[in-house]
Structure to design on (418 residues):
């Protein structure tokens, strides 16, 4: 019911919004944003306990969303908020190097995927499948959420995250929060009398916060300054940029465009596509203790509508590379803990597979070991730099890998000239 309502509201015209702004404050605050990232969470960081003093002045949806985002009292544990694993001081991503965060009533239930950054999601298109069958867009690593408000439901309710038993449980906790009166002032004195409607406003307030607070999309990295003619890249950074763009070398820009768009908008370093990279299995994920368990991305287990598209099994959404140098873990399963290793994997996966995958007693490299045998054919082996075999030279030398890593460091928000 909530999803249907959200989708209906997303279709309301601007004129209708203006017409209903007074009578129905929810519609007036509609557009897009949320918390959570499809994995679990750790203990709170930059979070607001329920006992913290809050401003008494009237608040708008963005301000309410910010309070909700940081409020640990909205979780079953009382110690977890959206900000716990989407730390604003670490580009809205985890501050630790855990493969997946843990949540639940006592913070002991591990999630199944690495928590992503929430930066630059405001321009993500809805999930769609093109005429040729190619998927793109959507939120979460498998694109299953169409709106940021829809995405926000999972962290609030998932057993391995904030672990609320129901939307009504979230609303009951919110009703006891110190900003409950501001919530009433914005959405109506009787809003808590209808838990479903109140929960809907929670999701939309989170959406408004992420959509409208520029902290989620500052566009103030060194690279932004560079393309604006306000900063100079070092020699290593310039070499890395050239390798990043070169279709016969790094070929990174094929999925992570680095140039301004035709309309002059700044690059997001993602084309919103999905790719199957054959990332090695991560033994640190507890779910992987079951040898029959596989995270197949678009094919499940978190989404089931594309289960028949077996050609998509193992594909995950291409993330933005903005702030990638601040990440502590990489790829959907958190398999790598250093950016240099992640870049090296891209260019040496096929020339030196023994560096990344288990090796059997007979010397056979068990390549693409985090996919069932029947889906290993889906791994991208056609594009540069994957189109190589053992014995061939990698697309990038070690020195060139270092240069690409140097360039990626220019994508970190908050650059200040020395």
């Amino acid at each position: 019911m909530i999803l249907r309502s959200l989708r209906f509201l997303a279709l309301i015209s601007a004129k209708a919004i203006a017409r209903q702004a007074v009578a129905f404050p929810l519609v007036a605050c509609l557009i897009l944003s949320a918390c959570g990232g499809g994995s679990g969470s750790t203990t709170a960081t930059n979070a607001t306990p329920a006992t913290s003093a809050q401003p008494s002045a009237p608040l708008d949806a963005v301000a309410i969303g910010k309070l909700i985002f940081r409020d640990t009292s909205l979780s079953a544990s009382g110690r977890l908020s959206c900000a716990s694993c989407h730390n604003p001081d670490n580009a809205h991503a985890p501050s630790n190097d855990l493969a997946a965060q843990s949540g639940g009533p006592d913070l002991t239930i591990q999630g199944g995927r690495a928590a992503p950054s929430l930066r630059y999601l405001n321009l993500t298109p809805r999930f769609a499948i093109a005429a040729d069958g190619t998927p793109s867009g959507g939120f979460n690593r498998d694109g299953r959420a169409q709106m940021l408000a829809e995405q926000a439901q999972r962290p609030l309710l998932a057993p391995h995250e904030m672990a609320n038993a129901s939307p009504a449980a979230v609303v009951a906790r919110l009703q006891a929060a110190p900003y409950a009166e501001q919530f009433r002032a914005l959405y109506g004195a009787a809003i808590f009398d209808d838990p479903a409607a109140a929960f809907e406003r929670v999701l939309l307030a989170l959406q408004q916060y992420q959509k409208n607070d520029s902290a989620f999309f500052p566009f103030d990295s060194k690279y932004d300054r560079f393309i604006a003619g306000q900063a100079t890249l070092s020699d290593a950074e310039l070499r890395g940029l050239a390798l990043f763009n070169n279709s016969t070398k790094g070929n990174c820009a094929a999925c992570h465009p680095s140039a301004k768009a035709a309309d002059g908008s700044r690059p997001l370093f993602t084309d919103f596509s999905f790719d199957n990279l054959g990332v090695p299995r991560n033994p640190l994920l507890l779910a992987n203790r079951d040898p029959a368990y596989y995270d197949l991305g678009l094919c499940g287990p978190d989404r089931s509508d594309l289960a028949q598209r077996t050609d998509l099994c193992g594909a995950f959404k291409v993330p933005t590379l903005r702030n990638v140098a601040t990440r502590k873990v990489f790829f959907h399963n958190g398999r790598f803990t250093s950016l240099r290793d992640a870049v090296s994997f891209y260019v040496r996966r096929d020339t030196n597979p023994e560096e990344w995958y288990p090796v059997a007693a007979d010397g056979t490299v068990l390549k693409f070991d985090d996919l069932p045998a029947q889906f290993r054919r889906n791994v991208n082996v056609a594009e540069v730099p994957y189109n190589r075999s053992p014995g061939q030279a990698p697309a990038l030398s070690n020195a060139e890998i270092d240069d690409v890593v140097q360039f990626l460091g220019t994508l970190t928000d908050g650059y200040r000239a020395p």
About this structure: Residues 1-46, 48-55 have pLDDT under 50 and may be disordered. The chain is about 30% helix and 5% strand.
